[in-house]
Predict the structure.
Amino acid sequence: MRADGAIPVWPEAISAHADSVDALAIGFFALIWTLALPIGFAIVWFGWRYRRLNEDVDRKQRHHGLTWLELSWMIVPFLLALVFFTWSALLFRDLHRPPADAREVYAIGLQWMWKFEHPGGQREINTLHVPAGEPVRVIMNSQDVIHSLYLPELRIKQDVVPGRTTSLWFRADDPGSYSLRCAEYCGVSHSRMVGELVVMAPAAFEAWLAGTEAGLPLARAGEALFRELGCSGCHGANAAVRAPGLADLYRRPVPLASGETVIADERYLTDSILMPESQVVAGYEPVMPSFQDVVTESELVALVAYIKSLSGREGERE
Ligand code: CUA
C-alpha cells in the first residue's frame, strides 16, 4: 500500500533509468500481445470454421505454400527480436557503466538482512541512505547464499552472489522513503529481508553522514587488515616474495598467465583475494593462498577499498 492508500499497480518511478525500464517493459508487453492476440483468435476461428459439423467449407481446397507469407513470419519476428535485443542491451550496458563521479556504497547480503557500508566508515542495517540527484554505485557481495537487491521504485534488481562481486548504479531523483527488498528466495526468512531506501536532499544527506557514528573509513580499516593478515609481507615495497604490485592497480588492465587480460575492478580484486589460483598474473608464481575462509565479507570490502585507495580513486569525497 502506498502512503495515499492506493494499491500500487505499478511502483512509482523515481530514478534516472526508471522511465527507460518502464518503456522497455511496456514495449515487451505490447510485443507479446501483438503476437499472442492474432494467434489466439486464429486458433479459435479455425477451430470453429473447420469443425466437423460445418458442411459449408470446401475440404478439397488446398494451398501449396505462399512464399511472401512464409518469409514474412520469419523476417518480421526476427527484426522485432533484433530491435528488442538492441534496446535491452543498450539499457543493460548503461546500468552497468556508472559515471566516473558516482558515489560508492557497499552492500552485503546475508541470511537475513542487508548491511550497507559507506566509504567513510558509516554502517547501516536494512536501511540505505543516499543523496538525491547524484549517481550512486552499489557494490554487492553475499556472505552466504544468493540474494538479490531489489529497489522497485528505481527499477533496479541485481543478484548478490557469494564469492562474486556485482554492481549497479542508479540516480534517485525524488527525496523520500522507498522499499528495498530481497528478490531471490534465500531461506525461511526471505520474506522478512526487507528494508528501506531513504533518498535525501544532498545537504541533508551530508549532514546525516557527518552525524552518523562512523568506524574507520573503509580504506583505513583495509590498510590495517592488510598488515595484520600479512599481505604487506608479499605485496609490500621490500617484500621477500615477488608479488604483483597493488599501487595504481584499480581499473588497470592486468595480463594473466592464461593469456587473457582483465580489468582490475572490484570483481577482479575480490576474486584475487578469495581464489588467487583462478587468475595468476602473467610472470608470477601461483603462490598466494586463498583467503576464502580467513576474511569476512566486511573485511573483504575493506581490503578492496584499501587497494582502490592506492589508485587515489576511493575516498575522494571525504
Ligand atoms: Cu535474501 Cu531472499
Observations:
- The chain is about 35% helix and 20% strand.
- The first helix runs from residue 18 to 49.
